[in-house]
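Exam revision sheet. Question 4 asks you to relate a sequence to its structure. Input first:
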Amino acid sequence: MCAASPPASSDASVPDDSVRAVVDAGGEPWERILDLLERRCRELPVGSVLELHSANPRVRSSLRGWCRLTGSTLLADEETGEQSAYRIKLPPRHGPGMPHPFPFQKPESS
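Answer key, structure tokens:
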């Protein structure tokens, strides 16, 4: 079962690296996690920190590649028993001339 927490309320006193959302992906395959991550990232402000929980050991290498491609930063990678927790800082901004931070989005149908 996959779950995502609602975004944390905006508070100027919250540190820049505090987690704004958690995605619990269980043992889902990377393809499903990628969809969950990208959907959640579109909902969060740029520069936010997202925490991903996964019981799938293959996620680690795919997530590192995704971070490189999107300009995100993997802040922490902790294994606790059969599950891993990853803290990811989303890119600070998307400006003119910069590639879209989430290149794997499917085109929208019209």
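Marking note for examiners. The helical segments are 30-43, 59-70.
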